[in-house]
Recover the amino acids of this structure.
């Protein structure tokens, strides 16, 4: 069932969400019908002056009946919980081969960047039938990335990465909205998602101006912002080598162990005093206010690319 005119469905997630929605709708309608039928039947039957029996309740409500209906409704609710929760969880973990798009929200626009480096504003072109993973962050306040036709909605927060993924199943142009009140022009913070056939997308990409991809831009920033002064192999400063860091478990000086993911690397730059790598002095300066979110994403992409090259940790 897909009444496109009232709830367009353009991703695999949308289909799943709609099945749940229609399921709940049907269940609620049945319950409503049952309740109203009982109201009407009982009102007529026990109206004033009717001959219906009004003594104490008959003994039809026995133990088996109680246990029966309690467990049926219990399992029904457990099933609904499992159904909705599993759809929700599946919308969080992207498949490994997903196309990775970086999104930066700011008052009041959406900036997106493709793995090739191509950038867009208030627009995002994606190929059909290929999973797309969005890594999102905000440059100022809280926004929310909302594509109704995709049933995709995820808050975008300053100082944090959030992600969501989808698999487009229909070509076309779909509205993108901000679903978190974010200031004067919140209602104008709109964009469009263009789902294209795969060959059209490939062609579209080749027509985009040559942007540096994130990792290359990160490599440039790594030198320009002085990171390499401490972190390069040749540096005389005692700082951890970053090759192989990404994805590894880091031993911290206070005994904790953390996984070096995007969030950890972001915090290392913006709040270096928070997690100190074991065996090092807390001499790294904070880059809060010096790097914008796009630059943090680029540097993170660069550090991630180092892990892919060496594969092995060296510190
Ligand atoms: C003054 C020298 C210095 C500069 C400049 C510097 N760092 Fe660091 N960095 C360190 C030291 C020392 C540590 C280890 C102590 C700590 O965790 O804070 C570190 C830790 C890190 C870590 C965590 C490493 C781990 O193994 O847990 C990351 C990631 C990092 N730096 C990235 C950067 C980036 C990106 C820049 C440039 C924007 C930069 N650093 C600039 C000295 C520096
Ligand atoms: Cu917004």
């Amino acid at each position: 069932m897909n009444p496109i005119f009232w709830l367009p469905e353009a991703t695999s997630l949308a289909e799943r969400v709609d099945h749940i929605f229609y399921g709940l709708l049907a269940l609620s309608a049945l319950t409503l019908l049952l309740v109203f039928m009982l109201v009407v039947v009982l009102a007529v039957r026990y109206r004033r002056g009717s001959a219906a029996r009004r003594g104490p309740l008959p003994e039809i409500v026995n133990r088996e009946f109680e246990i029966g209906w309690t467990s049926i409704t219990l399992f029904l609710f457990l099933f609904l919980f499992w159904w909705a929760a599993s759809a929700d969880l599946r919308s969080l973990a992207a498949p490994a081969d997903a196309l990775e798009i970086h999104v930066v929200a700011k008052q009041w626009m959406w900036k997106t960047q493709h793995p090739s480096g191509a950038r867009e504003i208030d627009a995002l072109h994606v190929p059909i039938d290929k999973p797309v993973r969005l890594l999102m962050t905000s440059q100022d306040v809280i926004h929310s990335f909302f594509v109704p036709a995709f049933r995709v909605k995820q808050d975008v927060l300053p100082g944090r990465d959030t992600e969501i993924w989808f698999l487009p199943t229909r070509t076309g142009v779909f509205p993108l909205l901000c679903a978190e009140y974010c200031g004067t022009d919140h209602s104008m913070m709109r964009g469009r998602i263009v789902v294209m056939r795969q060959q059209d997308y490939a062609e579209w990409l080749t027509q985009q101006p040559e942007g540096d991809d994130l990792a290359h831009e990160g490599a440039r920033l790594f030198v320009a912002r002085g990171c390499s002064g401490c972190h390069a192999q040749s540096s005389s400063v005692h700082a951890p080598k970053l090759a192989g860091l990404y994805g590894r478990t880091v031993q911290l000086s206070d005994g904790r162990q953390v996984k070096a993911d995007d969030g950890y690397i972001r915090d290392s730059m913006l709040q270096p005093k928070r997690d100190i790598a074991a065996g090092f002095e807390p001499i790294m300066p904070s880059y809060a206010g010096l790097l914008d979110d796009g630059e943090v994403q680029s540097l993170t992409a660069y550090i991630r690319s180092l892990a892919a090259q060496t594969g092995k940790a060296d510190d």
The chain has two domains: 1-42+67-211, 214-310. The pocket of heme C (ligand 1) is lined by residues 225-227, 229-231, 237, 239-240, 242, 245, 250, 265, 268-269, 272, 276-277, 280-285, 287, 299, 303 (CB under 6 Å). The chain has seven helices and twelve strands.
